[in-house]
TetR/AcrR family transcriptional regulator
Amino acid sequence: MSTVRGARERARIEVTAAIKDEARRMLAAEGAAKLSLRAVARELGMVSSALYRYFPSRDELLTALIVDAYDSVGAAAEQADARAHAGGAAPRERWTAVCEAVRAWALDHPHEYALIYGSPVPGYSAPADTIAPASRVGNTLIGIVRAAHAGRGLALPPLPAALRPEAVRMTADFAEGLPPEVTAALVAAWAQLVGLISFELFGQFNRVVEDRAAFFAHAADQLAHAVGLPAV
């Protein structure tokens, strides 16, 4: 019986992967708003009722694609940081390595990037299952800043008095142990990182920035400076 169960499980894994691969092709061709379980089933030669045994709704399929995308870019960020750290890189160099890994992933996976960082999908509300995967890149950057804070220290960015209560709240929520000044700068840096990548990916840099790799590397280093990471 265990052999039969194993074969069934392998078959389920293979069919699930095929469904998600076809859904990704549809995302690339038509966008997330037009994703349809019936269309996916038709392209795979399945009846809709069979596909519903794997994904009962379009939203569940979207959630699976979103979690996969966040996990993929998160793994790219974590691996880049691990390599830089193992090579003796300073925190600022680790930060830049992570930012460049996120950019490289986005350029390699533009439609998945658009799914997780682009316009919201009409009628879809992301469930709590997406929170942990979505946090992986941010947590990697926070970990680098924490290491610097515990080591040589950080240059505290300016923080207006009116923003301090919000910065204190954010610190308690997701950056415990860091100065509130740094937390506020981290949130701004994260937004700017996504903006830089989105501008490149979605064409806003056309006829504006030619050497985009060099421009991005400089911008990522400036974000590191903004959150207080020392130059060396």
In short: The CA atoms of residues 118 and 167 lie 26 Å apart. Residues 2-30 form the longest helix (29 residues). The chain has two domains: 1-56, 58-226.
